[in-house]
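Cross-posting from the chemistry board since nobody answered there.

I work mostly on the small-molecule side, so proteins are not my area. We synthesized calcium ion and want a rough idea of how it might sit in this target. Sequence and SMILES are below. Is it possible to get a predicted 3D structure of the two together?
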Amino acid sequence: MLRYDDFDDGTLGSWKGYRGEILIESYLYYRSWPNCARLYGNSIHGSGCFEIDVDTTGPYTEAYLIYSIQFDSGTRPSVDVNYTKTFEADQQASSNVWYRFAIPLPLSLVTNVRILAAGNQRNGYLDDAYVIAK
Ligand SMILES: [Ca+2]
């Protein structure tokens, strides 16, 4: 395991907000108690994202980003890897449901991942994010 972020120490680690404000959410929403990261979307383009740069440098043959995420209503999940869309759901996510995603990562480089989480003035919630490699 290359990294694990559960936000339960009250810090965001290396996670940032892209077109949105990222902050710690306590007690109200969590996959692991008591915290998750909340992204409050402020883009009129509806593309507020959790963002992280992941380093997969090493003697690996496979690497994945695995995370749990929840959305306010009206969000259609998608993921950009190195600024290219690599996944987009064909329908909107349900609210009040934790989804788990596993995203394959390129090997032996630093990869930018943007997880679309929130439209304009809507929230997304992220918890228990792992990067694993073998
Ligand atoms: Ca947590």
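Reply from a structural biologist on the board:
Welcome over. Reading the output above for you: The chain has one domain: 3-133. The domain at 3-133 is CATH 2.60.120.260 (Jelly Rolls). Happy to explain the token format if needed.
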